[in-house]
TrEMBL record, chain A:
Domain annotation Acyl-CoA dehydrogenase/oxidase N-terminal: ranges: 6-120
Keyword Nuclease: no
Family to which the UniProt record says this protein belongs: Belongs to the acyl-CoA dehydrogenase family.
Descriptive protein name: Acyl-CoA dehydrogenase family protein
Pfam entry (one): Acyl-CoA_dh_M
From TrEMBL, chain B:
Family matches, as InterPro entries: Acyl-CoA_dehydrogenase, AcylCo_DH-like_C, AcylCo_DH/oxidase_C, AcylCoA_DH/ox_N_sf, AcylCoA_DH/oxidase_NM_dom_sf
Protein name: Acyl-CoA dehydrogenase
Annotated Acyl-CoA dehydrogenase/oxidase C-terminal domain residues: 157-284
Keywords recorded for this protein, A-Z: FAD, Flavoprotein, Oxidoreductase
SUPFAM superfamilies in the cross-refs: Acyl-CoA dehydrogenase C-terminal domain-like (SSF47203), Acyl-CoA dehydrogenase NM domain-like (SSF56645)
Cofactor(s) in the UniProt record: FAD
Keyword Acyltransferase belongs to the record: no
Species this protein is from: Nocardioides conyzicola
PANTHER family: MEDIUM-CHAIN SPECIFIC ACYL-COA DEHYDROGENASE, MITOCHONDRIAL, MEDIUM-CHAIN SPECIFIC ACYL-COA DEHYDROGENASE, MITOCHONDRIAL-RELATED
Pfam families recorded: Acyl-CoA_dh_1 (PF00441)
Family of this protein: Belongs to the acyl-CoA dehydrogenase family.
Length: 379, 289
């Protein structure tokens, strides 16, 4: 058991650190949920991509570095330590891309991955529906077969789609076989958000920015070439995404370690013993998360699978994120209500226990799949 | 970079598990609490044969953590932290037989001084051993002692690590027993483990222990201070004990039921070798500088 990086991993780390030090914008970019901020973030994605840092774990053919899982975590640690901007492309890169690599055709990989890597095309996840939140299998938006045109016709409504207000493409599940049982008969579609029949209505979030949107589908035609995986197999395809979202890929430990370090700086400048425990606990938990992630990386590198451990992860980081930011606001005292990076971070952290499957759902998964407790009786 | 136990460490854990699972440790602990130390000393000798007393001098803190997690999981009584972690480092050599130590103010009493061959205060032998003081954990026999001796920081940190690992083991045991219980116990016609309120409470214990473990192992590797491990393992084990008691209901509240051994042990270990407040303050000093 050891936590020492190899020579080549250390070299990778040094290269990443040097590039980030030289390139990370000195001033934080405007919010990616505003029109200006979205463009500024896309420009940052381009800069990252030009230096081949936007998708380090991808094949070189798609502007990656074929980085190992260890290197990926190392990069993420450096990325957040350097205070680099949040990734406007994250839904595409972290949630959709693994599915495109695993289930997409060669043609789809060649068509979608390059513009995803450069940030030219930003993707939105069109997952939830007004009546289907955590119970994703109950979704009702439909896909009807159109043999004549060689594709499908989508109808219905998606909601809470992050980034959809400004994004270019969406991905989501539609019910393609109304006769099939809940989890069956769903198909995974990719579609341009400016397609005929699609209406995007931005929804202002707690902070007033249009971070997510409702997406309406009225006889939207999608050709067969934009179906991901086999028709009717959407649930299985989608579930591999859900694991990514809850687990390792979206919430790298670097985020929390960097925020905990900033919290310690804040405490140094405004020390208030009343909140000392909160500071210590936030730091300790961020370290726990970092070390836990190295354990996960080791297991995955040895051929293990993420499985339900992603649910353990998700509850922990989402609660840590809120506690950490609450402590920062406590330390700021009356200044806490004034717009600041801490306040932005706090508002964002509040969504953690809700998205990517609520923490209630995650706790059920932990209890049933890890502890082996009986399923709840559902009527 | 491999942040999991290696094959030798897993084998060591398995061999301790095999020994302890066949040693009727609950009966040993109950005898120890009642003042009959003979079964406990026989177990002591068998664990010493497995090398537990020489881990601090001959192995790494990771092996030490592995051993103490097993001691916690099986509620093994005796001054193990004192004999196997603190004293070998403070004295510079492995201890012979059973030894114990007080280290005021954080370790005000000498644990199991009545069965120890040597009783220290810091790095010096105690000049006097006083009367038995009752602990919340009946298997911890505490004695006030007199004497003067220096404390050793490195030894203290290793003792803190050992206590953290013991807490982790105790927390894991309580969770495992609680899960078994809620799958059997029925109310309103179904297992209480199928109720979401029970599930979520036990899931929170699973999560807390899962994130305490890497801090214990990380502290063993020197990645984080031992105080971080103690705070996290103490919080997680305490949550396990409170939740474990709650899901067991009244049976868990009895001394007769074995769960009580772990519930009281966790409470004692939370403040042993430095209270959570002390360790948080120590961490804050280190972080804020």
């Amino acid at each position: 058991m050891d936590l020492t990086l190899s020579e080549s991993e250390l070299a990778f780390q040094a290269e990443a650190r040097a590039w980030l030090e030289a390139n990370v914008p000195a001033e934080p970019l405007p919010s990616m949920d505003t029109a200006d901020g979205f463009v500024a973030h896309q420009e940052w994605e381009k800069r990252l991509s030009d230096a081949r840092w936007s998708v380090v774990s991808w094949p070189t053919a798609y502007s990656g570095r074929e980085a190992s899982l260890v290197e990926w975590v190392v990069f993420e640690e450096e990325y957040y330590r350097a205070g680099a901007p949040g990734r406007v492309s994250q839904n595409g890169i972290f949630l959709l891309a693994p599915i495109v690599f695993d289930h997409g055709t060669q043609e789809q990989q060649d068509r979608f991955l390059p513009t995803m890597a450069t940030g030219e095309k930003i993707w939105a996840q069109c997952w939830s529906e007004p009546e289907a939140g955590s119970d994703l299998a109950s979704l009702r938006s439909t896909a009807q077969r159109d043999d004549e045109r060689g594709g499908w016709v989508l109808n219905g409504q998606k909601t809470w789609s992050s980034r959809a207000s400004f994004a270019h493409w969406g991905f989501g599940l539609f019910r393609s076989d109304p006769q099939a049982a809940r989890h069956h008969g769903l198909t995974y579609f990719l579609f341009p958000l400016d397609a005929d029949g699609i209406t995007v209505r931005p929804i202002a979030q707690l902070d007033g920015e249009a971070g997510f949107a409702e997406v309406f589908f009225e006889d939207v035609f999608v050709p067969d070439s934009d179906v991901l995986g086999a028709p009717g197999d959407g649930w299985r395809v989608a579930m591999s995404t859900a694991g990514n979202e809850r687990g390792l890929s979206l919430r790298s430990p670097g985020r929390f370690c960097a925020a905990a370090d900033r919290l310690i700086d804040l405490y140094r400048s405004t020390p208030d013993p009343a909140y000392a425990d909160g500071v210590v606990d936030a730091w300790t938990k961020a370290q726990a998360y970092r070390l836990y992630t190295w354990g996960t990386v080791t297991r995955l590198a040895d051929g293990g699978e993420m499985g339900a451990a992603g649910s353990v992860n998700k509850v922990f980081w989402s609660e840590l994120d809120i506690a950490l930011h609450e402590t920062a606001l406590d330390l700021l005292g009356p200044e806490a209500e004034v717009e600041s990076r801490w306040l932005d971070g706090y508002t964002f952290s509040l969504s953690g226990p809700i998205y990517a499957g609520t923490n209630e759902i995650q706790r059920n998964i932990v209890a049933e799949r890890i502890l082996g407790l009986p399923r709840e009786v559902r009527k | 970079m491999k942040f999991v136990l290696d094959a030798d460490q897993r084998d060591f854990a398995a061999s301790l598990d095999a020994l302890l699972s066949s040693s009727e440790t609950v009966a040993v602990a109950r005898s120890w609490a009642d003042g009959d130390s003979a079964p406990g000393l026989r177990l002591w000798a068998r664990l010493a044969e497995q090398g537990v007393l020489s881990l601090a001098t001959d192995a790494t803190p990771v092996e030490l953590a592995v051993a103490f997690e097993a001691l916690g999981r099986y509620a093994v009584p005796g001054p193990w932290v004192e004999s196997a972690a603190y004293l070998p480092v403070a004295l510079g050599h492995e201890v012979e037989g059973v030894a114990t130590v007080a280290l005021p103010p954080h370790v005000p009493y000498a644990l199991d001084a009545d069965v120890a061959d040597q009783v220290y205060v810091g790095d010096s032998l105690a000049t006097e051993v006083g009367d038995l003081v009752g602990s919340v954990d009946r298997t911890r026999r505490l004695f006030s002692v007199a004497g003067e001796g220096r404390s050793d920081d490195a030894a203290f940190d290793l003792a803190v690590l050992a206590t953290s690992a013991q807490l982790l083991g105790a927390g894991e045991r309580i969770l495992a027993d609680s899960v078994t219980y809620v799958k059997q116990r029925k109310q309103f016609g179904r297992e209480i483990g199928s109720y979401q309120a029970i599930k979520h409470a036990l899931a929170d214990v699973r999560i807390a222990l899962d994130f305490a473990r890497p801090l214990v192992l990380g502290a063993a590797l020197g990645e984080v201070p031992a105080s971080a491990a103690k705070v996290a393992a103490g919080d997680a084990a305490y949550l396990a004990s409170r939740t474990g008691l709650q899901v067991h209901g009244a049976i868990g509240y009895t001394q007769e039921f074995d769960l009580s051994l772990w519930i009281t042990k966790v409470r004692a270990l939370v403040t042993a070798w430095g209270t959570p407040a002390y360790h948080r303050a120590r961490l804050l000093d280190e972080l804020v500088g």
